User: Which sequence fits this backbone?
């Protein structure tokens, strides 16, 4: 996966079976997020899914600052339990509606 250019939108990751490698250059923490879930999460919130600005809605797990880079990765997500059930999504959409 050399050409980063083909991953301009979060939807491109899921389409190509890639996940999101999110890098925090503040503390060097790296996390892998499930592309499909992140994409759905952004769409639920009505957020822009452009990869170049997607990190603005994220926070580093370790230092709580904004991560700085998002790259495609074939690796499995670190936290498969995140938004792992239909209940999580129901709760989210209910919360957003209010
Ligand atoms: Zn960090």
Assistant:
């Amino acid at each position: 996966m050399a050409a980063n250019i083909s991953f301009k939108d979060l939807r491109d990751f899921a389409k190509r079976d890639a996940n999101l490698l999110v890098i925090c250059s503040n503390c060097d923490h790296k996390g892998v997020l499930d592309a499909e879930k992140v994409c759905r999460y952004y769409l639920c919130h009505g957020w822009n899914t452009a990869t170049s600005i997607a990190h603005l809605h994220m926070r580093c797990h370790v230092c709580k600052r904004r991560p700085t880079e998002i790259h495609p990765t074939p690796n499995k997500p670190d936290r498969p339990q995140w938004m792992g059930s239909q209940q999580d999504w129901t709760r989210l959409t209910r919360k957003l509606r209010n």
Observations:
- The longest helix spans residues 86-97.
- Helices lie at 10-15, 35-45, 51-54, 86-97.
- The radius of gyration is 13 Å.
